User: What shape does this take?
Amino acid sequence: MASAYPPSLTALIEEFEKMPGIGHKSAVRLAFHMMNVPEEKARHFAEAILSARGNVRLCGLCQNLTDEEICPICSDPRRDRSLICVVESPKDLAAMEKTREYHGLYHVLHGALSPIDGVGPEDLKIKELMSRLGAEVAEVIMATNPTVEGEATAMYLSRLIKPMGIKTTRIAHGIPVGGDIEFADEMTLTRAMEGRREI
Amino acid sequence: MASAYPPSLTALIEEFEKMPGIGHKSAVRLAFHMMNVPEEKARHFAEAILSARGNVRLCGLCQNLTDEEICPICSDPRRDRSLICVVESPKDLAAMEKTREYHGLYHVLHGALSPIDGVGPEDLKIKELMSRLGAEVAEVIMATNPTVEGEATAMYLSRLIKPMGIKTTRIAHGIPVGGDIEFADEMTLTRAMEGRREI
Assistant: This one.
């Protein structure tokens, strides 16, 4: 039996169902929400999708998402151009920026090395990173995730970059602030012990 | 500090955040999903919203959502026109249709009476229901929800319709199939006892 909803509504429900983490019930709820908001708001939403798709591109330098040729961070004269922090994704960059503590530049790899998933160096923005490593760069900070893939990527990059006479560092792993040693996993505890500092 | 995402992407995240049940993290995830699908699919999605908004209207008879003047159910000659099943919402109608057991017509009220929320008879599609109650209608089935509002609405409608010499009935309440008596609430158990039938 066909859906009890009209074809155009069924089509919209199916579109929502294609999105990650959206099941059938959520898709119905979201599609009905779109039916119930004022027409102008629905058009607004559709235009926001098209506008984001039309305007967002990768920054010519750091490969972060941006509406411009060069992103606001790369074109900000107050940022320290001797530091490049390498992250896997724009979300990681956003998290880092939220700390307000880092004032260098970034480089977004758009992934991490993963032979199992068929992700090799040529699938990441590594060529673009290498071409940025001029004389003004003093340190490249590996802020990839503390996963097998993230570690492998940090290791791979550091082997490429160190011979160029540029310092490469890895962000510290350890007990999260506010975390509980009792509940920390062994890997994290091991890393926390290894990274201990004199106080 | 401004968002680390470009303005057009931030705008899209904010649009997703306006949707029911979508928090900030889900909104970011959905917006990034839209950035990663092929451009054609993103356009497809935007068009599905506009198409649903542009085409979906209320059926001239039953008030269900439809792409046409009169919905496929109302215009289906095989449906029993002597039966009208009154539901609160298009979703309830869809649930009923899924059973494949009911072959009469429907009427969608688009809500239930709720004095507390300021929903009176004139806010529901009651006038439209009354105008459909011609000589061919033998029975009106109240399939409003088993809530205070749904019960009040069923009662209100039955008082309007009964004097016209049309039979009004209420769907049965009781233990859900596969449900457990041990965990049924008192109201449901009471209704199940009241609705008992000889076997």
About this structure: Residues 21 and 53 of chain B are 21 Å apart (CA to CA). The radius of gyration of chain B is 22 Å. Chain B touches chain A through 58 residues (CB under 8 Å).
